[in-house]
Amino acid sequence: MKKYFIHNAFFRLLAPPVYGVLTYLLILLINNSLLQVNEIFSGQEVYMCIGLTFTCFESARLVIILINRFLKNSFSRAKLLIQFLAGIAIPTLLVTGAISLYFTYVVGFSAGSQLVLFAIIFSFSAVLYNLLYVSNDYQLRENTLKLTAERQQREVLELEMDEFRNDINPDLLYESLENVISLINRRNSDAEEYIDYLASAYRYVLTNRQQELISLRSEIDAGKNIVRLLNEKYFGQIRLEVTLEGVDMDLQLIPGSLPVAVEAIVRNTIISANDPLIIRCYLEDGEYLVLQSRLNDRLVRHTGSTLALARLQKSYTLYSEKPLIQVKAYEENYIKLPVLRLAEEALTHA
What we know:
The chain has helices spanning 9-31, 37-40, 43-70, 77-107, 113-168, 170-186, 188-207, 216-231, 257-267, 303-316, 343-349; strands at 214-215, 238-243, 252-253, 277-284, 288-294, 325-329, 332-338. By secondary structure, the chain is of the alpha+beta class. The strands form 2 sheets. A 5-stranded mixed β-sheet has the order 2-4-5-7-6, covered by helices on one side. Strands 1-3 form a two-stranded antiparallel sheet. The two termini are 53 Å apart.
């Protein structure tokens, strides 16, 4: 909520006395000389000026509140014009009415030219009050825009950092490093080969992180590489069986789709020598790349892979009207990735 200084309690209490005294001195200077100020200075008239200032400021403030309540449109010229006209006219009428009553019933004679002088001074005061509000409102709007831009920039940076952390995939990295240590103690040649697979996996991620789309052929190779890395922990009990024709390999996916989906299946499936994991990869109606595996879920889902799959699901909404689908039916688990076609290829296919 915007906080305007005109609504501040200290401003409302302190501004009328200060401005009222200055107004009274101004009136004395207009009607008399500076040398006569000490002689004609009246406490009653000072209090009157303070009261008139309070009336002027509070009535102008009330007009601003009512206009903002009933005219909730954006900062427009019509709203500004109405605010200035009402914010000047109403305080001026109230002040002139009050000073007329003061001169009639307290002083005992008609205000005359003094009434015009008070009307001019307090109409100018109402103008200043409205200008202060408008400048404060403009400043708050500018600050709001800057804060919004900074907040959006921060959100973008946080999103990029989340994507970067997801690309790094610390679970896979630490697990692979542990496997490397184990292989070094057993078979150096296998450790070197495993390091090559690990380097290829992260080289693929870092190389294609700026790409919007990538060929299905590259995704299949990356998926097989992830299976090789994960198989060290599961002693070769994971298999990725791909049944795709050569022409299908030129279809497009979001980079990292297949590795993320494969890892999500592996991380959330019970795998053992008696229950190996076979992931079948095939194309369905030319629209979806399907990963099918036997349903054998873990009791607790792996948080990292689940979040990565959810982020991937959101990413596909930017590129396709077809959603990423996760289905469990007939003791089978299905993850369906919508394949994408470039414009020329889509026209040819149609």
